[in-house]
Amino acid sequence: MRKLAIVGVEKEIIELAQECGFKVAGIFDKNSNVRVFNLPVLGNDDSWERIHKEIQDLQVAIALDIPLLKEKLASQYGFENLATVISNSSYISPSATIQKGSLVQRGVKIMPDARIGRVCKLNVNATVHHDCVVGDFCTLAPGCMLLGAVIIEERVFIGAGAIILPKVKVGRDSIIGAGAVVVDDVPAGITVVGVPARPLVKEYVE
Ligand SMILES: CC(C)(COP(=O)(O)OP(=O)(O)OC[C@H]1O[C@@H](n2cnc3c(N)ncnc32)[C@H](O)[C@@H]1OP(=O)(O)O)[C@@H](O)C(=O)NCCC(=O)NCCS
Q: Model confidence over 32-89: pLDDT tens digits?
């Protein structure tokens, strides 16, 4: 049985891994007192090298949502040690591709010729339609929907239930708010919210 450690406290990913036939050996978290499903805390991120020597063939799933953090941890834990975990109750088109370290939850649909990058997290019921490209380290929250030929660059977070219209391009490091309907291209590094989605501008009171 393949052995897996989960980085971060994420009950859904633990259950996903178990459903996919992994033996979950424990979790990595900075808080050694957390208890999830009676699994041991193996250590924090700095304990990885020691634990990796102790438990042979241990793989890792990075269960966190924040794209920048996922990128940092993927290189700390080593891309070669990352597991790709895909729910049996997702639909993945035979012509779609999913890169190493990505996690695909129940009810996700990935349609023909869609391409999913490394260390992406596709949460329950997210849908990626035909010819979409999703860059490395992206997070798709529950129920979001990318319509045909959408391009999502690296490290984008897409909130729950958001809809991205066909052929729209979302620039790297952007955030799409929950429930947004994105009708135009989104520049890199900004947050958009609403219907239709517009940049979120925060007013600061001195
Ligand atoms: C967009 C988002 C990232 C903004 O977070 P934030 O920077 O902390 O923003 P704030 O909560 O300070 O809200 C700022 C303003 O934007 C509004 N706003 C926040 N999120 C919004 C959204 N999704 N849609 C519309 N308006 C939103 C707030 O009402 C607030 O408006 P106000 O200034 O008129 O009071 C966040 O609200 C969001 O939608 N996150 C996605 C959550 C999600 O899907 N999680 C999935 C977990 S599995």
A: 888 888 899 999 999 999 999 999 999 999 999 999 999 999 999 999 999 999 999 9
Say what the pLDDT of residue 33 is.
86
User: Which of these, 104, 76, 74, lies nearest to 90 by C-alpha position?
Assistant: 104
CATH topology of domain 3-63: Rossmann fold (3.40.50)
Q: What is the mean pLDDT of residues 92-101?
A: 98
| Among the four given CATH numbers 3.40.50.720, 2.40.160.40, 3.40.50.300, 2.160.10.10, the one describing domain 86-193 | 2.160.10.10
Facing residues of 175 across strands?
157, 191
CA-161 nearest atom, ligand 1: 44
- What pLDDT sits at residue 90? 98
Measured in Å, residue 69 CA sits from the centre of ligand 1 at 20
3 contacts 25 by C-beta, under 8 angstroms: yes
Q: How far apart are CA 196 and CA 184, in angstroms?
A: 9
Query: Residue 159 C-alpha to ligand 1 middle, in angstroms?
Result: 9
Q: What is the DSSP string of 120-162?
A: -EE-TT-EE-TT-EE-TT-EE-TT-EE-TT-EE-TT-EE-TT-
Distance 181 CA to ligand 1 centre (A): 14
